[in-house]
Design a protein that fits this description.
The chain is of the alpha/beta class. It has one domain: NAD(P)-binding Rossmann-like Domain (Rossmann fold). The protein contains 8 helices and 7 strands, in the order βαβαβαβαβαβαααβ. The longest helix is centred in the middle third of the chain and has 29 residues. The termini are far apart. The structure holds nicotinamide-adenine-dinucleotide. The site of nicotinamide-adenine-dinucleotide (NAD) has 30 residues, from helix 4.
């Protein structure tokens, strides 16, 4: 595969776990990392899809593996990270693009929707980052990226569960960045705006929510997965070596409107 040699953005040879790597955002991210010469582990709750994604990367000539992952399980997070170490010797990067989206008016929100949002988006971000950090801190290097959301920052009606989980994941990013800074492990987050993927189908497919979401984006379009790629690559690469604890909103201006 063609490798890019700009040292500021170089990630060739890095071993990177992409959680939710079979998903609407995770898969394009995984493909970009592989195209740039990284070794990519596709980790997902959907093991069959993870396996076919990894197989597709290998067909393109990349080093890739698939591993099952349930981010709500501490043991599963540890096993996925260990899988990378067993295959390639160390873990250099984590991109957590797993997550769920549940909405409902606060007075009516199902308890299970609240709990699953917190379990997967917040506790899952913690357990997975901690599993990666346990390997990266002793090796004194690593970059962790969590895909949070504009909902880490803005309030939308009906978003109690999602926004609370994403705001928690964003602030968690800052605490972990602080704890691991001296060890050279950087922890950042990327907050996308609405991007057509299976997760966002409930927003996009309903004209009312679609128009309302669209109207809030100053650049007057929804996001696309490739809008995130430069930020992901940069945060993993040496060019970002002094950048930690930040939430980068790649959102067409959503969080300033
Ligand atoms: N699409 C958007 O509009 C948008 C906007 C902002 C933020 N985000 C965030 O980006 C991330 C990815 O979203 P997406 O649009 O790609 O969604 P998606 O539904 O297309 O993909 C999510 C992936 O996460 C996996 N997953 C779900 N639960 C899991 C678990 N417990 N353990 C491991 N993997 C699990 C799913 O199998 C799926 O492959 C999510 O955190 C989402 O909140 C998405």
């Amino acid at each position: 595969m063609p490798h890019h040699h700009d040292p500021l953005f170089a990630i060739a040879g890095q071993n990177i776990l992409v959680a939710g790597g079979a998903g609407g955002l995770g898969w394009p991210i995984a493909q970009e990392l592989a195209q740039r010469g990284a070794n990519v582990a596709i980790a997902d709750l959907n093991e069959a899809k993870a396996a076919s994604c990894a197989e597709a990367l290998r067909r393109l000539g990349a080093q890739a593996l698939a591993t099952g992952l349930n981010v709500t399980s501490r043991a599963s997070c540890a096993a996925a990270c260990q899988h990378v170490v067993a295959a390639w010797g160390r873990l250099d990067g984590l991109v957590n693009a797993s997550g769920i989206y549940r909405v409902g008016a606060a007075l009516d929100l199902a308890d299970q929707d609240w709990q699953n949002s917190i379990d997967i988006n917040l506790t899952g971000s913690f357990q997975l980052a901690r599993a990666a950090g346990a390997l990266m801190v002793p090796q004194k290097s690593g970059s962790i990226i969590t895909i949070t959301s504009v909902s880490s920052h803005v309030a939308n009606q009906n978003y109690a569960a999602y926004a609370a989980s994403k705001a928690g994941a964003a602030h968690l990013t800052r605490v972990l960045a602080l704890e691991w800074a001296a060890a050279g492990v950087r922890v950042n987050a990327i907050g996308p705006a609405v991007t057509p993927t299976p997760l966002a189908a409930p927003i996009i497919d309903n004209p009312t929510t679609r128009d309302a979401a669209f109207a809030k984006i100053p650049m007057q379009r929804f996001g696309t997965p490739d809008d995130l790629l430069a930020s992901v690559v940069f945060l993993l690469a040496d060019g970002a070596k002094f950048l930690t604890g930040q939430i980068i909103y790649v959102d067409g201006g959503r969080t300033i409107s």
